Amino acid sequence: MLVTMTREPERVERAPASLEDLLTAVAAGDRAAFAELYDRTAPRVLGLIKRLLIDHSQSEEVAQEVFLEIWQTAARYQPNKGAAVTWMLTMAHRRAVDRVRSSQSSRDRDVRIGIRDFEPGFDQVSESVEVSVEHERVSKALGRLTELQRQAVKLAYYGGLSHSEIAAKLSIPIGTVKTRLRDGMIRLRDELGVVP
To answer: Which biological processes are named by the entry's GO terms (predicted)?
Structure first.
């Protein structure tokens, strides 16, 4: 009896390619390398994006954009500047942050537009008439002050001068300025019918 031994072909266990090698192959347009790169890194990329965006559908959309960018820019990866996974996750982080900012900006804009749309209409003619009438009332009330009171009030409230500046301009003591202002304001209050 003759026994022949046949040998089974040896299985050669190939070490999986490094991510750096896969990126190099992707840069050359190797679709199989891209598929393997995707299979090995997609969970980490999507996980990072989900932590930032929370919304699952937006996270998947951004992950898709990231892998498209990886396919298009793999040639820019420089192994001497960092690990491939770091390069990819940085890209994913940047894209996710951009999406968060864009969403926030969009929400802010919608809120501003919504607030503007719900603001009551502003009647400029009515406002203009009210201001004009009020201005006329104040002018008439100022006309009823003594000349000295009117000067002090106008310099203080229309000219924006301090008590000491009014005193210097009118060549009178500060105490006199304060008295004229106080008396003038009391008289204006009475003329305008303002309740103290």
So the answer is: DNA-templated transcription initiation
**Cα–Cα distances in Å, from 66 out to 36, 112, 136?**
16, 31, 67
Neighbours of 155 (CB within 10 A): 20
Query: Residue 190: phi, psi to the nearest 5?
Result: -65, -45
pLDDT tens profile 36-52 = 999 999 999 999 999 98
pLDDT above 90: percentage of residues in the chain: 49
pLDDT at 123: 60
Q: What is the CATH number of the domain that holds 29?
A: 1.10.1740.10
59 and 110, same domain (yes or no): yes
Q: What is the pTM of this model?
A: 0.49
* Cα 96 from chain centroid (whole Å): 16
3-state secondary structure 112-153: HHHHHHHCCCCCHHHHHHHHHHHHHHHHHHHHCCCHHHHHHH
pLDDT tens digits for range 162-188: 999 999 999 999 999 999 999 988 988
The Cα 50–Cα 60 span in angstroms is 8
Q: Give the structural domain span for 151.
A: 139-192
For residues 101 and 141, give the distance between their C-alpha atoms in angstroms, rounded to a whole number: 56
Distance CA 93, CA 19 (A): 18
